[in-house]
Amino acid sequence: MKRFEGRAALITGGANGIGFACARRLADEGATVVIGDIDRDAAADAASAINDLGTPSASRERVAHAVECDVTDRGSVEHAVAETVQLCESLDVLVSNVGVASTVSFADTDDAEWERQIDPTLSGSMRVIRAALPHLLDAPGGGAVVATSSVNGLIACGGVAYSAAKAGVINAMKNLAAEYGANATGAVGADSGWVRFNAVAPGTTATRVWTERGAEGERDMREFGALTAMGRAGQPDEIAAAVAFLASQDASWITGVTLPVDGGLSVGPLARIIALDGS
Ligand SMILES: NC(=O)c1ccc[n+]([C@@H]2O[C@H](COP(=O)([O-])OP(=O)(O)OC[C@H]3O[C@@H](n4cnc5c(N)ncnc54)[C@H](O)[C@@H]3O)[C@@H](O)[C@H]2O)c1
């Protein structure tokens, strides 16, 4: 069964890594996907790659579009949402996925550096949700937002600004879930007029944020992965599977939650030691 047949999904930061895996997964399951990314060429390449995959089963082919979208720019975000609705005639699912981390120490984080991380990661996510909200409220069967937070939003993993932004995303999902959980008329069970808001909190996931730093990045990725209960880093497809679940009707009574997808990193600091000791 295709969980997203007839649904339209916008994925911000969808040209690479986790966002691309989400776009591919939702398209596999029948959604018309729109890849919104600051890198217009990469978004176009990503959409072509999905379209070129052809027909996943007996039903229609995968359908992916690309739009330019810089989540730090309100005009760009509003334009991307309008383009999405024009292309798809609706917007049912939003995957708000952009996040910008940094290795700059807290002491060296001046106001400009703080904003460089907070703006795309927290404010950008809110900009996209605000622009998409009127369309999500019109979605038959309810709209769905899944935000990509991080284990950094749950526990101390380093990176104060990025982590504070990711924690902000988690709390925003709870408040938005409360505010938009039911139709504003009070008609409980109405077919539209409400949106579910959830988040995933990935742990170390094998994307270019690690691999583009060469051997050192690969080593860091392995070392962080080794700290998890499961002893390895995750793959973008493993995050996408959780995002697809939360965006789907399988999660029809789930709103305001954050699902860690982290191989057990966030269960506790002793997870790996317990696993190796077998105790
Ligand atoms: N990779 C990990 O280990 C990891 C772990 C936890 C959380 N996350 C989060 O997952 C999300 C995706 O990360 P990733 O590892 O796939 O990164 P990635 O770099 O592979 O992909 C990020 C995409 O976002 C786009 N982008 C960057 N700034 C943008 C902007 N202002 N507007 C629109 N698009 C923009 C980039 O062009 C890129 O296509 C981020 O929110 C990140 O914080 C990643």
From TrEMBL:
Keyword Oxidoreductase annotated: yes
SUPFAM superfamilies: NAD(P)-binding Rossmann-fold domains (SSF51735)
InterPro entries the UniProt entry points to: KR_dom, NAD(P)-bd_dom_sf, SDR_fam
Pfam families: adh_short_C2
Keyword GTP-binding: no
Similarity-based family: Belongs to the short-chain dehydrogenases/reductases (SDR) family.
Protein name: SDR family oxidoreductase
Source species of the chain: Paramicrobacterium chengjingii
